[in-house]
Design goal:
2 strands; mainly alpha; 160 residues; globular
């Protein structure tokens, strides 16, 4: 309702992304796939130094790793401009409320996990902070819930 009123008054919503937009679903899916990639490679690189050196010499790994860093940084900007639903089920378009909710929520984790420490500080002990990238995998449940499939299929995906 607020959305239509503001649009009729000419206020508009520059750079606001609706949470249930199809484009946002696909973006979240890409972010999730990159998080799955990180959830496999990061523990291996932190656990095995030889594996870390082998991966860091791989051009494909470095491209995917750099791409994921860029996508994660872009995702922060998108999350700062993505609507959410309040406890009453009303979609919130107010940028101050959107940003306050995100900053009080996952912003710190997203920000720290977006820094490509393995590229900036190779072999440095702080690279253990890369483990924060794995926390992005918790968005999986929200993405599965948005899928247009029956509940049984959603349950199988959650188990997987």
């Amino acid at each position: 309702m607020e959305f239509e009123e503001n649009m009729q008054q000419g206020k508009g919503f520059k750079f606001i992304i609706r949470q249930n937009d199809a484009w946002k679903f696909w973006w979240d899916t890409v972010i999730l796939l990159l998080a799955v990639f990180n959830s496999i490679t990061i523990p291996l690189t932190l656990s095995f130094d030889g594996f870390s050196e082998t991966l860091s010499n791989s051009m494909a790994y470095n491209i995917v790793n750099l791409t994921s860093a860029v996508f994660f940084i872009l995702d922060i900007f998108l999350q700062l401009n993505t609507t959410f639903y309040d406890s009453d089920g009303e979609e919130i378009f107010d940028k101050r409320r959107i940003r306050a909710k995100y900053i009080c929520g996952l912003f710190t984790i997203d920000l720290l996990s977006s820094i490509p420490l393995e590229l900036i500080l190779p072999g440095h002990p702080l690279r253990v902070l890369n483990i924060l990238k794995i926390l992005r995998i918790f968005r999986l449940t929200a993405i599965i819930n948005k899928m247009n499939v029956d509940e049984e299929a959603k349950s199988y995906l959650r188990i997987l």
